[in-house]
Design a protein that fits this description.
The chain has 4 helices and 38 strands. By secondary structure, it is mainly beta. The strands form 10 sheets. Strands 1-32-33-34-35 form a 5-stranded mixed β-sheet, with no helix packed on it. Strand 30 and strand 31 form a beta hairpin.
Amino acid sequence: MRSTLIAALVSAAFPMMALAQTADELKNDEKTPGDVLTYGMGYSQNRFSPLTQINRDNVKRLVPAWSYSMADNRGQEAQALVKDGIIYLTDHEKTVALDALSGKQIWKSVIEYPPDTTRVVCCGIVNRGAAMFDGKLYRTTLDAHVIALDLKTGKEIWRTKSADPKDGYSMTGAPLVANGVVIAGVAGAEFGVRGYLEGFDPQSGKSLWRTYTIPAKGEPGSETWPDGAASHGGGSTWITGSYDPELDLVFWGTGNPAPWNPLNRLGDNLYTNSVLAIQPKTGKVVWHYQMTPSDPFDYDGVNEWVQGEFTIDGTPRKVVMQANRNGFLYVLERATGKLLAANKFVKVTWAERVDMTTGRPVWSAETKAALDGKTVQVWPSLVGGKNWHPMSYSPLSKLIYVNTMDFGWEYPPLPSSEVANLKPGEPHYGVKRPWSYLFDDPNGRGYLRAVDPLTGQSKWAVPFKSPNFSGTLVTAGGLVFTGRLTGEFTAVDADSGKILWEFQTSAGIVGQPITWELNGKQYVTITNGATGPYVMRAGDPNLANVPAGGSIWTFKIFEEYSGPQRAASAN
C-alpha cells in the first residue's frame, strides 16, 4: 500500500517520467541526445554527442546550473544516465534519482553491506554506473549482487547473488542490457577469482547463462595453463562491453591473470587479457583475441571496446578498438576479430611491436628478463598507458580522445616459491611492495591526446603535471570535455587541443562526463571525488591539498538577465 502511494505521488510530481525503455530506444540512444540511456552514451560506446549548442565559441560562458552531494568521500567513477528529465546516478552504496534541471533528489535507494565486504576491493571502493530497460534500473554491488530498482520509486524489484565476496569476488561495473539480457561482469583478479560474465533475465533476475573467462580442464584454452593455475586464474570482467545489434555480438574485455608474477603459470593463460565476442542470448563466445599473453605486468585487457567505421586499403570496415593498458591501440574487425592495426600510443618498452601475422606481441629483453625472475624497469607502468577511464571517438574527425599515463615502473618479482599455494580471497600479486613509478618528465606525467586509431599517432597532445583519470566526451560542437585530479572540469578544442574553459570543482575528478538536452537547452554533467591506485599510492605532490568529497555537477550556458530592472534609488 505504501509503495503504491509513493509511486502515485512521484507520478504526480514528475509527469514526464516514462514507465519503460524499449530495446529500440536503447539501440537508438546515440541518435536521441535528449536522453542518455546506456553506458557509453550509446551501444558503440563512442561517447560522442551530435549536440552543438555548447561549442568552441561560447563554452567560455559555461557555468554551474546545480550540484548535488553524494555524501561520500570515496571516488565517484559512475556515468550518469538521463531519461525524460531525470538523472540517475550510482555510487558504491546508493542509487539516486535527481531532477535534471534543479538537482533536487526524487528518491534514494541505499545498500547495506555485510561486514568486511570491502576487504576484497583492491583499487577503490566505487561503482561505475547503471543500465536501464523496461522501467527498471539495473546495477551491481560490492558484495557481488545484481539488483533491479523501479525507475519511478527506487524500490528494489529483485536481487540476485552472483558470487561470494569471501572467495575474492566483487562487482563494480555497469551492467549492459543487450537483446533483452542484463549482462554483468566481476572484479577480483587480484584475489584469485575465476572470472566470468553472467546473463540475467531482466524481469526476474534469474541467471540465464554464465561464461567463464578461464577454461575448465579439458575445455579449449585449458592447455595454456599449467596444472592447478587456472582454478584461481583471474580474468575479471569489470568494465562494461559494447554491443552491435546488427551482428548481435557483445564485445567485452577480460582482465589480468593471477597472480601478476607469471613464474608459476607460464603459458598464454587464455582467456585473460582478451576481448570476447559473445552472443548475448546464450553467452556463447563467437571469437576472441588476446592482447597480452602471459601478462606479467598487470596490463589487464578490460578497457572499453569502442565501435567505429574506417576505410582500410580501400575496403570499408566495421571495427572495435581499444587503447590497452599495455600501451598498444588495437583495431579489430567486428564480425571476425581479424586484427587490422596494433600500434603504440605511448612509450612502450615491454614489447617491440605486435606481429600482424600472428597477432602476438614481440617481447623485449626487459620482459624476457622479468620472466626469468629478474627486477626490470618497463613502460608503461601497471597503471597502464591508459587506465579504466573511457576514451571517446568522433565519427567526424575519425580520432579518439584519450587521457594517457606516461610513466613506467620498476617491476620486482618475488621468487616462485613465495607465490605458490595462494588461496582465493588472498592478495595475488607476487611482486615486492611498494613498487616505484618512473617518470621521464615530472611535468608531463599524463597527456590528453587526439589519436589516429589506425596509426597510434597523436594529432595533438596536452601535458598535465598529474595524469587525468577522468573519461572524455567529444561533441559536434568541436569540444572535448574531461576532468583533472586537481578538480578542474576542462573543455578543449577538439581540433587543436587548446584549453578553452576550466571550472574548479570541489574535489578531484575521476568521473565520466555526459551531455544532454532538455527543453531546447544543452547541459553537461560530471561527477567529482577522486580515488584509485594512483591517487592512493603514487605520492603525487600536486594532489597534497586536493580535498576529498563526491558530488555530481551540471553546467549550462550563462544567459544574461533580461527581465525587469530595479529602479535606482534617488539620492
